[in-house]
Amino acid sequence: MSTIRVVWGSAAGPTKMAAYDGALADAGIENYNLVTVSSVIPATARVEAVGTAPDLGPVGNRLTVVQGHATAADNEPASAALAWAESDGGEGPGLFYETTGTDPDSVRERALDGLEAGQALRNWAFDEPSVQVETTEEESGAYQAAVVVAAYGTSEPIC
């Protein structure tokens, strides 16, 4: 059984990319090449919200993720959310749903609404949902970025 770790972070920077890279560093996943997948949790995986990632392998490796990430300009907030539900009793697959925006309460609500819609499309029984929201602090003269990322297992060599 593998573990999917939910990590989150936020940062400010002089460019959108610098802010995003800083948010990834705050979450502990800045040294990996992220490969984004859709939103299905494999039946053999369990989800664990950890905040900051442990060592997931060598620098430069590929890391499979589902991510919500938001970036905002000067003095604007950015919020990212990731909601998830595993199968009832942990005996089957589950789902993630990510969303972004500026208002943390709205982002949380939309993430849970999207998850509920995804659950309705599947003939699976689900446990109660979980949700993680990360919101930036407003900082004058900088871009802000927030990320919430589900990191699947450990990293793998990219070449």
Automatic annotation (TrEMBL):
Keywords: Decarboxylase, Lyase, Pyruvate
EC number(s) from the headed UniProt entry: 4.1.1.19
Pfam families listed in its UniProt record: PvlArgDC
Cofactor: pyruvate
Stored Gene3D superfamilies: Pyruvoyl-Dependent Histidine Decarboxylase, subunit B (3.50.20.10)
Entry annotated with the keyword Flavoprotein: no
InterPro entries: Pyr-dep_his/arg-deCO2ase, Pyr-dep_his/arg-deCO2ase_sand, Pyruvoyl-dep_arg_deCO2ase
Single GO biological process annotation from the record: L-arginine catabolic process
Catalysed reactions, semicolon-separated: L-arginine + H(+) = agmatine + CO2
GO molecular function terms attached to this record: arginine decarboxylase activity
Family in the record: Belongs to the PdaD family.
Name by which UniProt lists this protein: arginine decarboxylase
Organism: Natronosalvus rutilus
